């Protein structure tokens, strides 16, 4: 995975310099940055960033798929040319059951590292362009979330195809071409639906003339119809304890520093997380000891049964026949006969 060449980032992505002046552009000279070639398949994004001392990567061509699993349900997000990706945050959510990146095809990516950081010192307005690009991607994620909440799967699928076409589609004389080979399972991960349901939805959309599947991807013929129903206003979120900076405590000081309170809350959350992990470790250890104790107990019991005293076994048998008619007398007679013949008496003689 060696760096193949360099590209002038601002010439390929001029929108990143939308806030820069002409003087800034002249100073940066197009902003040369290294390029890395990634093969198709599973991708360790953190390792790629670490290998190149980069804080991010900008896709030049190709496609990445981001997979996130929560409670057994997988959600997909596609990242294409022009998008910026970076390493996952250090504090991942506890709800996250799994995640990963995969390159759908050989992908070229511009390395955002030392060169971009030095350029931002010489032309600080470059940072604004990078920030806006990140905000645009976040807005597309928000649109994907809204699409996943549409009641009809057909509307979800059609809206998702148009959302992808807004970023990577091409307008032709026959319609909008989306040159992506998306499997039904991939579309299901994008819209939150099962593969079989997506297959039925695509069939219905094709019959209605809204889309057309061809060897190079999809051709979108009809956009999603705008709903005429009025949207009910949503209530604004409210804090349980609204913060009022004008209020003062009885002693005349501020009620408290919000940053300090947040730090204290994070510290308490961390302590609770550590206590939970410690309780899990103890429980696992106790269960292992319990299993080992039970196994050892069974071994000792088997050993005791195999080495039981034969005399004790005989005594048990004699006592078992005490209630039988004439059982004791029969044993006593056998003992007397054995003594008369010079034989040794029974080991466990029974007195009546």
Helix content: 40-55%
Mean pLDDT, to the nearest integer, reads 81
Which runs of at least 5 residues are low in confidence (pLDDT < 50)?
A: 246-253, 316-331, 333-352
Sheet with most strands: strand arrangement = 1-2-9-4-7
- Work out the number of β strands: 13
The run of helices and strands is: EHHEEHEEEEEEHHHEEHHEEHHH
Strand content: 15-25%
Number of helices: 11
Radius of gyration: 38 Å
The SS-based structural class is alpha+beta
* Largest pleated sheet: 5 strands, antiparallel
Distance between the termini: 96 Å
- Shape by Cα distribution: extended
Structure description:
The protein is α+β, with helices and mostly antiparallel strands and 352 residues long. Strands 1-2-9-4-7 form a five-stranded antiparallel beta sheet. Strands 3-8-5-6 form a four-stranded antiparallel beta sheet. A four-stranded antiparallel beta sheet has the order 10-11-13-12. It has helices at 9-12, 22-28, 45-51, 114-122, 125-147, 153-168, 184-191, 195-207, 258-306, 310-320, 327-340, and strands at 3-8, 32-38, 41-43, 56-61, 64-70, 73-79, 84-85, 98-103, 107-112, 170-171, 176-178, 211-214, 217-220. It is extended and about 95 Å long. Mean pLDDT is 81; it is low at 246-253, 316-331 and 333-352. The relative contact order is 0.07.
In short:
With 352 residues, this protein is of the alpha+beta class.
């Amino acid at each position: 995975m060696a760096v193949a060449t360099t590209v002038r980032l601002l010439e390929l992505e001029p929108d990143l310099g939308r806030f820069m002046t002409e003087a800034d552009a002249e100073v940066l000279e197009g902003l040369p940055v290294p390029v890395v070639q990634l093969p198709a398949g599973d991708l360790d994004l953190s390792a790629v960033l670490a290998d190149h001392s980069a804080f991010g990567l900008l896709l030049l061509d190709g496609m990445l798929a981001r997979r996130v699993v929560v409670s057994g349900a997988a959600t997909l997000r596609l990242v294409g040319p022009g998008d910026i990706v970076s390493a996952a945050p250090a504090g991942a959510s506890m709800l996250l059951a799994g995640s990963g990146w995969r390159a759908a095809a050989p992908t070229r990516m511009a390395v955002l590292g030392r060169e971009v950081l030095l350029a931002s010192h010489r032309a600080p307005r470059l940072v604004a362009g990078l920030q806006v690009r990140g905000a645009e991607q976040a807005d597309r994620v928000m649109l994907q979330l809204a699409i996943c909440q549409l009641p009809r799967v057909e509307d979800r699928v059609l809206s998702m195809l148009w959302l992808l076409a807004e970023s990577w589609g091409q307008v032709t004389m026959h319609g909008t071409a989306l040159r992506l080979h998306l499997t039904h399972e991939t579309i299901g991960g994008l819209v939150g639906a099962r593969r079989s349901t997506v297959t039925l939805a695509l069939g219905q959309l094709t019959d209605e003339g809204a889309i057309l599947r061809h060897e190079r991807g999809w051709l979108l013929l009809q956009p999603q119809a705008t709903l005429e129903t009025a949207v009910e206003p949503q209530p604004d979120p409210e804090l349980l304890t609204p913060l009022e900076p004008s209020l003062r405590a009885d002693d005349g000081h501020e009620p408290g520093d919000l940053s300090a309170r947040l730090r204290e809350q994070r510290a308490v959350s961390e302590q609770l997380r550590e206590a939970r992990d410690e309780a899990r470790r103890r429980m696992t250890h106790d269960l292992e000891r319990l299993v080992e104790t039970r196994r050892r107990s069974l071994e000792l019991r088997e050993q005791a049964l195999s080495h039981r005293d034969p005399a004790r076994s005989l005594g048990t048998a004699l006592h078992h026949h005490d209630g039988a008619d004439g059982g004791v007398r029969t044993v006593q007679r056998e003992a007397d006969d054995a003594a008369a013949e010079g034989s040794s008496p029974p080991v466990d003689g029974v007195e009546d």
